[in-house]
Amino acid sequence: MSGYDLALGRTLELAVLLHDDIARSLAAEGLTRSRAHLIRELHRRGPVRQRVLAHALDVSARNITGLVDALVTTGFVTREPHPTDRRVILVTLTEKGARMAEEMDRDRRELARALFSGMRKDRFDAFTEGVDAILARLRETAPKRDPLPVTAGGHGE
Amino acid sequence: MSGYDLALGRTLELAVLLHDDIARSLAAEGLTRSRAHLIRELHRRGPVRQRVLAHALDVSARNITGLVDALVTTGFVTREPHPTDRRVILVTLTEKGARMAEEMDRDRRELARALFSGMRKDRFDAFTEGVDAILARLRETAPKRDPLPVTAGGHGE
DNA sequence: TCCAAACATGATGCCGGTTCACTGTGTTAT
DNA sequence: ATAACACAGTGAACCGGCATCATGTTTGGA
Prior knowledge:
The structure is a homodimer. Chain A is mostly helical. Chain A has six helices and three strands; from the N terminus they run ααβααββαα. The first copy, chain A, has a single domain, classed as Winged helix-like DNA-binding domain superfamily/Winged helix DNA-binding domain (Arc Repressor Mutant, subunit A). Chain A has a three-stranded antiparallel sheet. In chain A, strand 2 (77-81) and strand 3 (89-93) form a beta hairpin. Chain A is elongated and about 60 Å long. Chain A binds a DNA duplex through residues 32, 34-35, 49-51, 59-67, 69-70, 85-89, 151.
């Protein structure tokens, strides 16, 4: 019984620590979780319209405007006109934005090494299995998000 | 190499999911992470002065005033005068606050069961070992907090 | 011509956090 | 005793982030 509680306690602690650690290192670059998420999404999908981002981040369109505003003023992103549809603005990663996206990837890989390297293989495997199992259970409770009926978007994806 | 990355990805996902899940269920009760933390601290320590809370939550004294304000208006907490030192106010859990603290404990235990029950013991053990190992590594990077030179506090602890 | 999509803007609200100045209260040393 | 210092907490003013709704503008298309 109490073993579970203890394990959950540690797991939550881990969750909070990781979460805060990420938030901290993002803040050091002038980013936040939302903004970083936006950058990552952009990096994977290429230039897209804001509506797509709104859906991907699961927030209101208004909020995307705000996030993009912030990223524009900090130079991570630009708003480019859509080649044919003049209503549409394609949010596009700048050089700096792309570099940042890659740096975030690198940081992640570094962190991965820092956390896991030197761990015995059997323990590592068991750990990842455990994580997966818990993720699965957690997702059963978590809310679902219906897919965007992809209109005629920016290219990418 | 890439195995680490994948594992970290899952772990981060777990961290975020857990974090957000907690935030959500707290919000449902009119709480936030900070306020819940304050309640937990109060539940463990008994009535204490705000300064102690400021230290425990690692925020400014002023901020504690704000958190306590909020918890007072929502009825989780009261401010009681210190019996002898009239400068001091002892923040005290109300009945409702105490119930909430215990409910949070219960919820935790429930969550623990939901996540871990049914997991094979060897995997469970390996998982917790993995969590501990990662926590240890993570803490090496994390900032430290010097202990409060316990003055003449509220009772408890 | 007129509707609807895509986005912008303004007004609000909440959260969490800060600094600075100030009051009221103990403590201590002269 | 009293003057000087230390401590607890508050009020005011602020910053920044995330999120909302309502409303406005431009533009593509039926």
